[in-house]
Amino acid sequence: MSKKLLVLVLTAMLIPAGFLFSAGQQDGGEASNLMVIITPDKDNTFFTAEADAAKAKAESLGYTTLLAVHGDDPKKEGDIIDTAIARKAVAIIIDVANADASPNNLKRATDAGIPVFCMDREINATGIAKAQLISNNFQGAKLGGEYFVQVMGEKGNYVELVGKESDTNAGVRSKGFHNIIDQYPDMKMVARQTANWSQTEGYSVIESVLQANPEVNGIICGNDTMALGAQAAIDAAGRSDIIVIGFDGNDNVLDSIMEGKIEGTVMQPNAKNAEMAVELADTYIKTGSTGLDEEKILNDCFLITKENASQWRGFRKK
């Protein structure tokens, strides 16, 4: 076996099975132009759009790409980062697995001389990532909370579905919702449960809640996937009087809004965050600096209702 072939075989063995789901064309195995893009899930439309936007931007700037998923598992995330280090990547663009555990993984990359750029989820540490491109979740949640109160007529019994407790965004969105809703004494929260960003869990939680609390007439959700699960549970219960609000702006929820099944959602600038992360990585690779004074950059969210849902697709305006 030639030395070159041996190197390629050993490098392939470093990629954990099931983590790699797409890659740009590699230039003879050269690692000096490789940008590694890591997201939580290849099936969730939010993360697919994020990965696609980052990949397209990186390749438009002349980089080859390797895309991988960590499944919200910090250990798998660490294995992928080790692969990026072994491949001598020029940058890592990542939507992290865990706000508290991921910094240790990211630090291994930075210690190896690979700059890291976070998108979507932030980490509970500074000085490790060169930049963190984050949706303004608090601002967005306030928009969602204001619209929820409005369509509920400032009164009613509601449920809150919360995302993963390990994800900083889940807590920030919940605080944003309550910053508005709690100002209205006739808005009564009868249940607040996590559904872990999952459509299946959103369905099962709301199915149980409606059985115990048939008086519920509103559900506000920390993401659109849970909102879709909630809406399915409402349909299964034969209810048509329950208002549902989501958060993310995925295409399936936009369709539901236009069909009149879901009342509204908050659109995250998902593609913008991904593209900016890659652009800043490119700037850093070429100049040694992002050119920014702050590590965290917040991009504002948008309220989506039936009036403007048709104007958006793939987390961007048509």
CATH secondary-structure class of the largest domain: Alpha Beta
In DSSP terms, counting alpha (H) and pi (I) runs of 4 or more, how many helices? Answer: 10
Spatial ordering of strands, largest sheet: 1-3-2-4-5-6-12
**CATH H-level superfamily of the largest domain:** Response regulator
Structural class: alpha/beta
**What low-confidence regions span 5 or more consecutive residues with pLDDT below 50?**
1-18, 21-31
User: Biggest sheet: strands, sense, closure?
Assistant: 7 strands, mixed
Quote the beta fraction: 15-25%
Computed CA radius of gyration, to the nearest angstrom:
21 Å
Helical content band? 40-55%
Label the overall shape: elongated
Distance between the termini: 52 Å
Tally of DSSP β-strands: 15
Mean pLDDT across the residues is: 91
Task: Report the CATH topology name of the largest domain.
Answer: Rossmann fold
Under the CATH scheme, which architecture of the largest domain would be assigned?
3-Layer(aba) Sandwich
The SSE string, one letter per element, is HEEHEHEHEEHEHEHEHEHEHEEEE
Return the domain count.
2
Domain Periplasmic binding protein: 36-286
Subcellular location: Cell envelope
Organism: Sediminispirochaeta smaragdinae (strain DSM 11293 / JCM 15392 / SEBR 4228)
Protein name: Periplasmic binding protein/LacI transcriptional regulator
